[in-house]
Design brief:
The chain has 125 residues and is mostly helical. The chain has one domain. Helices cover 58% and strands 0% of the residues. The chain is elongated, with a radius of gyration of 16 Å. It has 4 helices and no strands.
Length: 125
Amino acid sequence: MLTRFFTHTDETDEQLDALVQAALGIMADVLKPLGTALTRLPMGPGNPGRTAGAAFQMYYQMGNFVPWRNAAWVLLSERATVLSRQCAECAMRDGVPEAVGSAATTAATISEQLAGHLPQDLRPA
């Protein structure tokens, strides 16, 4: 989202504000609570008293953004939806911190807000 903000093409001021708000929302209301919750989880029975941490792996190239606004926004909205769904699936498991469910809700809201800036025919069904 920040990459799109800093390399935008024909976004309006309202759309640029939406990108910034979405990026801040992801950082403050998804990544921070998830990171905090992850580092408090026990590492496992073989490591008593130790806590886990995030791996910070990226499964896709960061340079895959396109110059066309609509295509880029569809991608950003879809990624927020994927994040939301993955968090929601994890949140249903026993022992998962509440932060995971909250992150799912926040990511879904951000996805909807981004999709709201797309033409009707490109919005998710």
